[in-house]
Amino acid sequence: MRPEAVAAMDPWLGRHFGNPSGAHPLAREARRAIDEARDAFAELLGAEPGEIVFTGGGTEADNLAVLGSAEIRRGAVLCSAIEHAAVHQAALVVGGATVPVDESGVVRLDVLESRLADLDEVALVSVMAANNEVGAIQPIDEVAQVIEETRPGTPLHTDAVQAFSWLNVSAVASRAQLVALSAHKFGGPQGVGVLVVRGAAKLAPRMIGGGQERELRSGTQNVAGIVGAAAAAREAAATRSATVERVGALRDRLADGLLSAIPDAFETGISAEPGGDRSGRIAGTCHLTLPDVESEALLVLLEEGGICASAASSCSSGAMKPSHVLEAMGVGGLSSFGSLRLSLGWTTTEADIDRALEVVPPAVARLAEAS
Ligand code: PLP
């Protein structure tokens, strides 16, 4: 967590531990803290304070957007084929349909347009701002344009959970009526999410009870978590452009170094050559496809070398299944391959990259030889 977030949370875990729904001074103090956090997110996201709903994380924000829309509006939920499970699985539960992506991982606007035109009714379109596995940035403005031209009035949800650290979500998602964030992706605490709800978006709540958060998310708010999330968001936004530049350069050095040192590796959806065009990727993602390497075995070797990495989405913890993102991009067509996702963040240093460049290529070579 960002130190600013830890420091901001501390008082709300002890001395000021009031329930924001109460009427006494301690409660009013807690309510004021939440209101300030709401104002901060509104400003950072280009929304009104009354349009900010705090949730228990990114999954909950996505579920509220998808399931909450489907309960109020008739018709299908259309989402891109590379959505995080929090959107993808929720859309499937309500009989949703997916829109394919091209080989670089970008949603096919032509197919979106024809699906929108063909369906009888559409409850919601959901396209993420940036993908969590390969980092592909999606053209949210163009998605909104297609909706406006084909199905005006259909709400658009964008999962901006991976985007906030790297992109100005206020600008990127300005035409989306629903926008989801998760605090632990930008240096805030785990278990705190935000959903912007505005314009044509009408939602049925998933949590019913005391009517907190404009009746959209009942339950006593996590005051310390919300305050910490706002502190982290302010810091992430204030330092964003410098972080993107610094971390982007580290990512380029990492990706180019690995591509040079590992025969037959390719940067997923980009190129097999160093120096590929990464302008369509967020700065914190380096994703490689490695022929003849088993991802699970590679992760074990990397762990021995002190590298914490992921084969696919770290959120589908547990069983290693083929990634639906890679499949959608057509990478699954390879007969035998492994994938490696190395994530960078605001804490990543040059020494981390040196270490990864030292450890990853020999580990891959060992496995390729064995296979
Ligand atoms: N959406 C995306 C794109 C994610 O990457 C994640 C988590 O990694 C989530 C949603 C879920 O967020 P949370 O872990 O806060 O529930």
Description:
- The chain is of the alpha/beta class.
- Helix content is 42%, strand content 13%.
- The protein has twelve helices and ten strands.
- It has helices spanning 3-13, 25-45, 58-72, 85-93, 109-118, 140-150, 169-172, 223-238, 240-261, 295-304, 324-329, 350-370; strands spanning 52-55, 76-80, 97-99, 122-126, 156-159, 178-182, 193-197, 266-267, 285-291, 337-343.
- The strands form two sheets. A seven-stranded mixed β-sheet has the order 1-7-6-5-4-2-3, with helices on both faces. A three-stranded antiparallel β-sheet has the order 8-9-10.
- α3 (58-72) runs parallel beside α4.
- The longest helix has 22 residues, at 240-261.
- Residues 313-319 have low confidence and may be disordered.
- It binds pyridoxal-5'-phosphate (PLP).
- Pyridoxal-5'-phosphate binds next to α3.
- Pyridoxal-5'-phosphate is lined by residues 57-59, 62, 84, 86, 128, 132, 159, 161-162, 182, 193, 315.
Supply the key terms.
371 residues; 7-stranded mixed sheet; 3-stranded antiparallel sheet; 42% helix; globular
Question: What's the topology here?
Answer:
Elements: H1 3-13, H2 25-45, E1 52-55, H3 58-72, E2 76-80, H4 85-93, E3 97-99, H5 109-118, E4 122-126, H6 140-150, E5 156-159, H7 169-172, E6 178-182, E7 193-197, H8 223-238, H9 240-261, E8 266-267, E9 285-291, H10 295-304, H11 324-329, E10 337-343, H12 350-370
Parallel strand pairs: 2-3, 2-4, 4-5, 5-6
Antiparallel strand pairs: 1-7, 6-7, 8-9, 9-10
Helix pairs in contact: 1-8, 2-8, 3-4, 5-6, 9-12, 10-12
This protein binds pyridoxal-5'-phosphate.
Residues 57-59, 62, 84, 86, 128, 132, 159, 161-162, 182, 193, 315 line the site of pyridoxal-5'-phosphate.
